[in-house]
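FAQ: What does a ligand-bound record look like?

Like this one, built around calcium ion:
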Amino acid sequence: MSLDIVILAAGQGTRMRSALPKVLHPVAGKSMLGHVIDTARTLQPQGIHVVIGHGAEQVRERLAADDLNFVLQTEQLGTGHAVAQALPALSAERVLILYGDVPLMEQGTLQRLLEKVGDEQLGLLTVDLNDPTGYGRILRDKTGKVLAIVEQKDATPEQRQICEGNTGILAVPGKRLGDWLGRLSNSNAQGEYYLTDVIAMAVADGLVVATEQPLDAMEVQGANDRIQLAELERHYQQRAARQLMAQGVTLRDPARFDLRGEVTVGRDVLIDINVILEGRVVIEDGVHIGPNCVISNSTLRQGAVVKANSHLEGAEVGEGADCGPFARLRPGAVLGAKAHVGNFVELKNAVLGEGAKAGHLSYLGDAEIGARTNIGAGTITCNYDGANKFKTVLGEDVFIGSNSALVAPLILGDGVTTGAGSVITSDVPADTLAVGRAKQRNIEGWKRPVKINK
Ligand code: UD1
Ligand code: CA
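The answer part, i.e. the structure of the complex:
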């Protein structure tokens, strides 16, 4: 059966106290609405319709995609009114309503809900709550049949005792929806067109309201303020940490691990505390990541070691290679197998060949460095003349003396040695020593100046 998904995201979110529209606030590095859209996509609907209002332009700009239909709700007159704005674009047999500020909804739960929808039946996601304050309550008859939803503000004291709450998530037969929404009225405590009133109409039309529950109540939890946002974040991170541990990763402390993107992991990976993984990260077998590392959009090959306080972005650490502590690998940094990068070394668009080493305090940018080449402490590639960038190519088994300045464009052949403190400005043929510094003079009998008494 065909499916349209409507995501409500027009509300203001006053309690966020933010210039950013509520649904753009991130959980695990991705906007709440982004999470909902991605979950919606997994259901392969024919259309995803996002109802926007407050901050509409920002939301549209941030999330625009070919498969999304943004629908503007200029005035927020209620959830029923919001869905009605999308009506002209709906044509599927089933319509699923989701919320842009309820990001942890699981695909499996929605799948179970959708299975309930038919011509004579709709599916409603409800949740049993210890404290249902604020939620619409599910009214059932003595046999348990759902009759209606009553909003907190319209409920009698007896109805407020009901602990089964409306999550708002609902799946309905598409061909009925227009008729029901057209009949909504706003004569209620909040003067709003309530989507929830559709339930009583469906019952009056002889349909059965089937209910389904989430496996975990956090799935249906929305974020109205930053406290709830932080709760969702922690829940997400705990879930991510548990999934990784189940896949064979050792997390030194699952409470001090953050995933803001996607990671694939091999076996026997060890991740120490306070590590942040961002974007797409690939971690192969036996990788060790030390404490306080930030690793984004990077690949760590088998047995690689990233030591404490390293920052990797768009980098690759080869098989058995290691970097850090305090290494900075920027986009295009590639460490070959068994290569070594030590403390306070920055690489950008630089490839270190197999077994090559840069042990301390270097900047290597726009460089190709051959196998087994050793870069002495303090070496800098001068890759930028203030206007353009140039490349440095070092052959294999090169030995760069400490504190060398390699002025690009520059090519050094295999086996070249440079003297410490050299400024190397022209190419050096293979197996040659290049010394580019003032020659040392020793001045015998030289006297230090003495202080003049005034
Ligand atoms: C709604 C439900 C309530 C349920 C609760 C769960 C109704 C009438 N009530 O109440 O039964 O228990 O959610 O959280 O549906 N929105 C729009 N346009 C509007 C109004 C709302 O896009 O005109 C969006 C909001 O941005 C929000 C969502 O719909 O994401 C829910 O709206 P809200 O006003 O928060 O509804 P509740 O009062 O929480
Ligand atoms: Ca709400």
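Follow-up question: can I read anything off the structure? Yes, for example: The chain is about 15% helix and 35% strand.
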